Amino acid sequence: MNMIPIAKPQLEEAEIEAVNNVLRSGIIAEGPRVAEFEQEFADYTGTEYAVAVNSGTAALHAALLAHGIGKGDEVITSSFSFIATANSILFTGAKPVFADIRADTFNLAPQLIEEKITASTKAIMPVHLYGHPADMEAMRDIAEDNDLILIEDACQAHGAIYNGKKVGSFGTGAFSFYPTKNMTTSEGGIITTNSKEIADRARMIRAHGSRQRYLHEMLGYNLRMTDISAAIGMVQLKRLPSYIKARQRNAKLLTDKLQGIEGIECPAVRNGCQHVFHQYTIRTRNRDQLSDYLKEKGIGSGIYYPIPIHKQPYYKELGYKDNLLVTEKASREVLSLPVHPAVTENDINTITNAIKLWSDEKC
Ligand SMILES: *Cc1c(COP(=O)(O)O)cnc(C)c1O
């Protein structure tokens, strides 16, 4: 039986040719294509600068370091995210502080951030989860009023728009190009910023703290992207608008068919927001049962994320004891359905008919 997969990177002849050209050029590590890709991604996102690195995790880590965040600092973020969000804060020696989320978009609730601000708070790091923008106007106000740095985990939200502006352009942005994301470079990531100082520092952090060869002004790492990845990224970036359209079309078809089915809650899109549907995520009380049922019918689904970060063994060991009720409920109820560009209208009928049958059998 052919499975409808939950994710499928779209790789075509153009990517293969782009990689071949890099290999033939002989410049296979960081070279001119990385610089070109950075300019194109900055233009797309509407920022002055972009600094390409070798993962989304590296982008978050370098963004925090570029802002001077470290030991003794607190960064407020979401526990309902991929572990890299909070781990990148730990890497710097700073402490992740978790605020609860909104029930509708699964993104940080602005009014709950304010309660968590202390004298040690240096930054807030909203996550644009599933491709739905966080409340950026409120986030920006909180950051300005409390003199805090704003770092956006935009790893799932390439091209998402909040009130006419792309995410990653409100604060310092961090994107991932992992194969399951809305565009890929194989492994890869990028930092976006309007600050020349932050871009320069991120470039140094990427290359062992040097801007002049063998002169090391600060502690840095090897976070470099290769020209092979950048070449794939440039092809994918050209197609990103059509990928987003396909995801939005699929999301609309899914919602049209799922709306009104007993026990299923469809994803919300807030006013002024362009959701890019990295994931199409429903809520249901019997989530694990539905996931098993769909698997039997050859339909892939995903749970992002079954254990909130503050409940992970390592974080419990660190002493985290938060009660984040909305986060914990979401982690029990969410189920993501296939929405990627390779999903056809026929696939959507298969998926939604199966969910309808499941719901009818239960009632
Ligand atoms: C994918 C992802 C990351 C990490 O990106 P990698 O490229 O896998 O390192 C960070 N945060 C979120 C929300 C992500 O989805």
TrEMBL record:
Gene3D superfamilies the UniProt entry points to: Aspartate Aminotransferase, domain 1 (3.90.1150.10), Type I PLP-dependent aspartate aminotransferase-like (Major domain) (3.40.640.10)
Listed GO biological process terms: polysaccharide biosynthetic process
Tree of life domain: Archaea
Record key words, sorted: Pyridoxal phosphate
InterPro entries listed in its UniProt record: DegT/StrS_aminotransferase (IPR000653), PyrdxlP-dep_Trfase (IPR015424), PyrdxlP-dep_Trfase_major (IPR015421), PyrdxlP-dep_Trfase_small (IPR015422)
Molecular function GO terms recorded: pyridoxal phosphate binding; transaminase activity
PANTHER family: DTDP-4-AMINO-4,6-DIDEOXYGALACTOSE TRANSAMINASE, TRANSAMINASE
Similarity annotation: Belongs to the DegT/DnrJ/EryC1 family.
Protein name according to UniProt: Putative PLP-dependent enzyme possibly involved in cell wall biogenesis
